[in-house]
């Protein structure tokens, strides 16, 4: 008999693993195979914007998900854990009811669609379900609860609570159950000690605030809604749609209600409840059969306080599978067949599958996955589908606009941001992104209006700097200077704004002011290559005998930036001006070798050659100057037309 049992649970384990591997293979064919999305993005990639997270599971992911392994290592581990969970359901069913119930409950666990689906996700759902089943299995198989067993079971409960905080309520229910039923209060104390030891260690490592989510402002209406969703069984998540993860899902379609052949929690829960009630009437209800109901009630309480997703419901569903399977033959007995069939039909009608509205969220995460894979065209299409949905949030707009912005399609980015601010109440970062898109798209007036409004509301110097950029782009240089001066007066270390102020003074021919501000930042290593030659130009335009200072500036720049074309050009001009034409020619030839499209070098080269008495070389340089200048103008026109096409404008 033991050999038959071994073959039975071994077959269930193999079948559970095989089915989950088949689903994982199908999952790998989609964009979601290589990129973790939804709540899994936190555990695999560090995106912490999806609510409470399991610190223990995050630590396991950090160990398992190395660069050389990828997501498949953790998924294979979870497939194995999912198979073991099927064996635990089989064993619990045998102990609580009968070998036949255990067998069918194990088969149901193998084919339970949500358990298969969550096995492919990088989330703690499967691990939490396995740990909860292990705790339940250890308790229902305890004819007597000695100190060692009680302590071990308590530790298992503590680990389960670290994986999923909902287990805290189940551990509490188990503690009461052990203390009330064992007849020995010492067993309850050992159980409590085991759980407390694990939880204290977890709190010391990750902090107590990481063990339980913060709960605030939860009203009765919201709790009632979550209770309904939990009991009803909305198996489609709110972040991604499992049926669209791989198109089409030939495995999940029949096992998660798409083809009406599966069994969501909306049927498992009521059937299990009926099974236990029938057991009370007919076969006797003992304290062990009540334990799964206590676990489910505790798990539901935790889910109502935080969320009612399929992940939170998975453990509860597996707890109830044996009771649900035990209910079916009891309801089909001759004396109960009529009302049993009627009850089954009522349950079927009342628990017809519902979806949790994953359309916009699914497309948003699809866009995220495609972008991670550098498939921007697919990402744009996914984000566009997401923003067309009625429940579209801020994220798909912001991500789509960011793609357009990063690819230089600033007009499109501005349109998306504009749609976003019209549809949603957005934060200042979105308004700043809209203004930046306007500025890059050449719509300086609209950018200036937004920046002026933000400056008036927030009185933040950095925004005044961007307002100055917008005013400068409008051609309102006096207003730009006023905005820049506001920033440098309050925030002297704003070197970017000071640089822009100096350039604006230079455009205004206020050379003394430009030289002062360039001089403040020219000594900074990160600015020297950009500012040094500009300061040299300004000093050269000033009517002062400062050629020695100019030459020193340029030599300092070239010492650290020997390939700087503007600095080389300025130095060549200075050397030509002071009669050192041979040295000037060396700098110009260096520019021609490194920057062959710098046409200004050939114009100066012509003058140098003529001064050296080499008219033929001067003629060739003049010809190259004209040729390269015309080519650069043509290239600019082509690029301008292409940018206009990308932005949806007209050339």
What would a concise description of this structure say?
With about 650 residues, this protein is mainly α. The chain contains 33 helices and no strands.
What layout of secondary structure does this protein have?
Layout: H1 2-28, H2 40-45, H3 55-64, H4 72-96, H5 99-110, H6 113-119, H7 125-140, H8 147-163, H9 167-181, H10 185-206, H11 220-232, H12 242-245, H13 252-255, H14 265-283, H15 287-306, H16 310-331, H17 337-350, H18 359-372, H19 376-388, H20 394-406, H21 410-423, H22 428-440, H23 444-458, H24 461-474, H25 477-490, H26 495-507, H27 511-521, H28 525-541, H29 547-560, H30 565-577, H31 581-594, H32 599-611, H33 615-646
Helix pairs in contact: 1-4, 1-5, 4-5, 4-7, 4-16, 5-16, 7-8, 7-16, 8-9, 8-10, 9-10, 9-15, 11-15, 14-16, 14-17, 15-16, 18-19, 18-20, 19-20, 20-21, 21-22, 22-23, 23-24, 24-25, 25-26, 26-27, 27-28, 28-29, 29-30, 30-31, 30-32, 31-32, 32-33
């Amino acid at each position: 008999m033991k050999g038959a049992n071994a073959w039975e649970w071994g077959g269930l384990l193999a079948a559970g693993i095989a089915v989950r591997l088949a689903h994982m293979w199908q999952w790998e064919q989609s964009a979601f195979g290589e990129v973790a999305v939804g709540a899994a993005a936190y555990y695999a990639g560090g995106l912490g914007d999806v609510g409470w997270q399991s610190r223990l599971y995050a630590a396991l992911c950090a160990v398992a998900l190395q660069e050389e392994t990828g997501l498949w290592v953790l998924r294979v581990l979870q497939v194995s854990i999912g198979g073991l969970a099927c064996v635990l359901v089989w064993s619990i069913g045998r102990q609580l009811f009968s070998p036949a119930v255990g067998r069918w409950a194990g088969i149901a666990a193998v084919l339970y669609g949500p358990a298969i689906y969550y096995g492919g996700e990088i989330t703690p759902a499967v691990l939490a379900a396995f740990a909860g089943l292990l705790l339940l299995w250890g308790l229902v198989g305890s004819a007597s609860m000695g100190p060692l067993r009680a302590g071990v079971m308590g530790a298992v409960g503590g680990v389960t609570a670290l994986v999923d905080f909902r287990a805290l309520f189940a551990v509490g229910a188990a503690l009461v159950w052990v203390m009330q039923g064992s007849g020995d209060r010492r067993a309850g104390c050992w159980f409590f000690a085991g759980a407390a030891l694990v939880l204290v260690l977890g709190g010391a490592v990750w902090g107590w605030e990481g063990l339980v989510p913060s709960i605030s402002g939860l009203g009765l209406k919201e709790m009632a809604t979550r209770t309904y969703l939990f009991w009803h069984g909305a198996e489609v998540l709110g972040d991604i749609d499992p049926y669209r993860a791989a198109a089409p899902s030939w495995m999940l379609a029949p096992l998660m209600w798409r083809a009406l052949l599966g069994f969501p929690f909306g049927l498992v829960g009521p059937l299990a409840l009926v099974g236990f009630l029938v057991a009370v009437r007919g076969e006797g209800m003992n304290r062990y059969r009540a334990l799964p109901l206590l676990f489910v009630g505790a798990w539901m309480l935790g889910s109502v306080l935080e969320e009612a997703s399929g992940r939170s419901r998975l453990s509860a569903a597996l707890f109830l599978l044996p009771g649900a399977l035990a209910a079916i033959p009891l309801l089909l007995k001759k004396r109960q067949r009529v009302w049993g069939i009627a009850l089954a039909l009522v349950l079927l009608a009342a628990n017809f599958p519902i979806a949790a509205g994953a359309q916009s969220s699914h497309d948003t995460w699809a866009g995220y996955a495609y972008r991670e894979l550098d498939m921007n065209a697919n990402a744009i299409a996914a984000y566009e589908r997401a923003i067309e949905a009625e429940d579209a949030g801020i994220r798909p707009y912001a991500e789509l606009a960011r793609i357009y912005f990063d690819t230089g399609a600033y007009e499109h980015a501005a349109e998306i941001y504009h749609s976003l601010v019209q549809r949603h109440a957005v934060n200042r970062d979105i308004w700043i992104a809209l203004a930046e898109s306007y500025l890059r798209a050449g719509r300086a007036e609209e950018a200036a209006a937004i920046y002026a409004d933000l400056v008036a509301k927030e009185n933040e110097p950095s925004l005044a700097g961007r307002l100055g950029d917008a005013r400068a782009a409008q051609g309102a240089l006096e207003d730009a200077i006023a905005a820049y001066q506001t920033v440098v007066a309050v925030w002297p270390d704003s070197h970017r704004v000071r640089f822009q102020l100096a350039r604006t003074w230079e455009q205004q021919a206020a050379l003394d002011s430009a030289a002062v501000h360039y001089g403040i930042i020219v000594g900074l290593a990160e600015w020297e290559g950009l500012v040094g030659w500009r300061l040299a130009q300004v000093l050269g335009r000033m009517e002062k005998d400062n050629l020695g200072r100019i030459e020193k500036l340029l030599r300092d720049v070239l010492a650290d930036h020997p390939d700087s074309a503007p600095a080389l050009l300025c130095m060549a001009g200075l050397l030509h001006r002071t009669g050192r034409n041979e040295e000037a020619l060396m700098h110009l030839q260096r520019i021609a070798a490194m920057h062959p499209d710098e046409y200004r070098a050939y114009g100066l080269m012509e003058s140098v050659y003529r001064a050296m008495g080499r008219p033929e070389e001067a003629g060739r340089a003049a010809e190259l100057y004209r040729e390269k200048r015309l080519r650069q103008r043509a290239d600019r026109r082509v690029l301008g037309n292409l940018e206009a096409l990308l932005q949806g404008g007209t050339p």
